[in-house]
Design a protein that fits this description.
heterodimer; A: mainly beta; 7-stranded mixed sheet; 4-stranded antiparallel sheet; 11 strands; globular; B: mainly beta
Chain lengths: ~110, ~110
Amino acid sequence: DSGVTQTPKHLITATGQRVTLRCSPRSGDLSVYWYQQSLDQGLQFLIQYYNGEERAKGNILERFSAQQFPDLHSELNLSSLELGDSALYFCASSPEGRETQYFGPGTRLLVL
Amino acid sequence: AQSVAQPEDQVNVAEGNPLTVKCTYSVSGNPYLFWYVQYPNRGLQFLLKYITGDNLVKGSYGFEAEFNKSQTSFHLKKPSALVSDSALYFCAVRDDSSYKLIFGSGTRLLVRP
């Protein structure tokens, strides 16, 4: 157990809908990363937050957004969902950013 | 741009035999390299990392990795494979500016009894 928690574990929804994925980092970790794992794209970095502020952005679609709250948990919002958004979404955390990232169990999203 | 490559989609090895999972990297500065393992329906678990220092890095579950600067490689090794080592293995390099991880395509390790 890495100490990073993600909810929900599974999510099934329809095209056009909006969902929110939640991540709680390890105790004391200030940095949160979001990654997407899909069959065709592999593991891709989406976005990073550090102590509430966005620090880096990767291949994140405009339909997707994220935030990190004062208690350091983070949410990834996915809207206007398409079939191709079906993937495993991982959250990872590290103390500040330079250190090892520890991953949560992921949220498996299926868009029908 | 930084990248890693895992040339083998799958590695098959018999239990008790040594295993090697290959990874090569391309970076503009000092490489910060990682290995993660993913078991079915589980998240990524950290195995080991190379930041600086000894070229042979020891990690969890008996795994080790050899950093070779001249060959730009960071191969994962284990002297004696277990059936329970069967999983998907990812090599990654850390981006210097954003600290994001850039992953390889993954190698599926199958250890047969």
